[in-house]
Structures are given as structure tokens and as C-alpha cells.
Amino acid sequence: MPELDQVCIRIYAALVRAPHSSAEDVGASTGFPPAVVGEHLADLARLRLVVHSVGRWSAADPRVAAHELLDPVEERLRAEHRAAGTALRRVAELRQAFMELDPLHREGRRIASRTGGVEVLIGRDAAGAAMLASALEAAEEMAVMHPPADPGGRVLDQEAAQRDLTVAERGLRLRGLYAHTALPDLELRSHVDRLARLGGEVRTMAAPFAHMVVFDDRVAYLVHRAGDEDGPDGTCTIVTRDPTVVRYLKDLFETAWRDGTPVQADERGYGEALDEVHRMVAELLAEGLKDETAARQMGVSVRSFRRHVAALNSGLGAESRFQAGVEAARSGLLP
Question: Could you give the CA distance from residue 52 to residue 61 in angstroms, rounded to a whole number?
Fold first, then answer.
């Protein structure tokens, strides 16, 4: 719907004073150029405030214009408001019904925790829903260890990224560990920047050994990807609330966190982790692994792995992989 601005009002007033005027007449009486007059006459016509007949323009009754144009809009908005009110009441009723089930759910988890129960969730959807519930219940912290991405796969899982933001926006402590090789990923870098603004912390390490999420030292999730037997997407998640097991997993995370390399907001590339990436490449070369196997272990494509090898050779002044191994040992990259 066009805006009724001061130019429209002046043109309307001119037509009230001089009905059946041409556009040229309106321009002469208002001083507006033809293009401005034409544009605003079209707006007034859409607002039903002027009528056009045989090259002449006249002002219409604004009450009739309001009835024709605005009454249907107002009625539609009122109907939508009534429908929204009904929907909101239904949502409130459902929310109350859900909350009445909460004590039952909590009691079941309390019993499972007391008896050392372990829950197995099949598929990403079940795990995602459970982790989101834990994220909303957490009171202090979420600690996450992300495994290297599959070659060619996405480094940043969108569901996990949204869970990170949910925790950080609640003002809880958030710590995330990624593989060094994830650092060049632009999506991850953008995510790190957002988390940093919310107080989140991210570090990287050579090879995260598990996909693990721990909330408040009270519940831990271990995500395993295998085959079709673990669900339609090959994902199986183990959930434990046993205090001893959760504490053990959290201690593993803390050890990895202390050794991790901090990722700075607004930093790009490998940053401080570049030497560690070169060390990983040198170690994989020393093991004599095929490029495909080494790339898979690093979580990068074969092409990216070979670029890393070329960069390592260049940095060491080596002309072959064998010579790079010798120079890596001499420089301290290899033990």
C-alpha cells in the first residue's frame, strides 16, 4: 500500500480545488515536475483518493476511499487477530499439559541416574531433542568435543550450532573443542565470532577422540557414527547420568581443553595452530599411510591433505616426502 506523503496531500488538495484537471494542470498549480506528478497520482489512485477519466483527474471522497480500501484490510486483520488469539490459547494449554508431564519425566531420569542407568538414543533427531532439553535445563555449562568432519562433509552441524547459541544466550559457560583442520572453514569461523560476542570459548586440538557433550557435570552424551544398524542416519548416542562416568568424561575433556589452542575471534586461517597441523602431517607421513587414509584421519579431503604436504615440504625446504620426514625429525616436529 502506497504511503500518503506530503506531495500526495498537496496534489489531492489541488484536485479538490480544481476537479477534472489534467496532469499538466496539476503540475502547473503545484509546481511539481511531470514525473513527480505522474508517480504520485498513481499512488493516490491506488489509495482510491483520486479518479481518472478521459485524461482528467478528480479528488474522491476520502470516506468512500477508506470504506473501499481499508475496511476489508481491517476486517482481515481482526479475523487474523481472533485466530491468533485462539491459537495462542491452544499453545498455552498444550504448554501447561507438557509441563504437567515434566515431574514424571524427571522422576524417571532420577531413578535411572540412581541405578546407574545408561540410555541409548538411535538417530540424530532423538539425540538432538535430548541434548536441547539438557541445554535448556543446564545451570552452569556445556562442554563439547567435536570430531573431525568426514572428508567433504560439513564442519559445522547446524543443529549443534543452534544448541551452542541457545546455551550462550542463556549466559552459561560454553566451551567447544574442534580439530585444527576445521579452522579454515568459513561457517565455523563465523560461528566462533558469534559465540565470542556471547562469551563462548573455542579451542582446537590435533585429533578430538570423541564426539562428546557434557552438561553441568550431570549428564554426558557420547555420539557414535557407524552403519545403518545404528539408525537411518547411522547415528547412535549413549546418554549417561552416572556421576562417576560423567566426571571421568569431563576430566578427559578438561585435559584436552588445557592442551588445546585458543581460537581468536576475527582470526582467519590456522592461526596459532599451524605448527600443530604441520606436526600432524609429518606424523602421518612418518607412519607411511596412504594419502586417502591420512586425509580421512585428519578430516580433510585428499586434495587438502596433499596441499598440507606441499606446504610442509616448502616450510622445511624439502624436495621429497622422505626428505621432509628427515627434516621434520631434525626440526623437532617429530619425536
Answer: 14
Grid cell at residue 46? 491506488
3-state secondary structure of 317: coil
Judge whether 86 lies within some domain.
Answer: no
Helix, strand or coil, per DSSP, at residue 171: coil
Is residue 284 included in any domain, yes or no? yes
Same domain, 284 and 161: no
pLDDT above 70 covers a percentage of the chain that reads 73
- pLDDT score recorded for residue 225: 72
- What is the tally of structural domains in the chain? 3
Which range marks the domain in which residue 13 is found? 6-60
pLDDT tens string 261-293? 888 766 655 555 566 666 776 666 666 667 777
Amino acid letter, 85: G
Q: Are residues 121 and 212 in the same domain?
A: yes
β pairing state of 235-240 and 219-225 = antiparallel
In 3-state terms, what secondary structure has residue 73? Answer: helix
Max Cα separation, the chain?
96
**The overall pTM is greater than 0.85:** no
Is residue 75 in some structural domain? no
From residue 206, give the alpha-carbon distance in Å to each of 209, 276, 323: 9, 7, 23
**71 domain residue, yes or no:** no
Same domain, 259 and 279: no
The position carrying cell 578427559 is 252
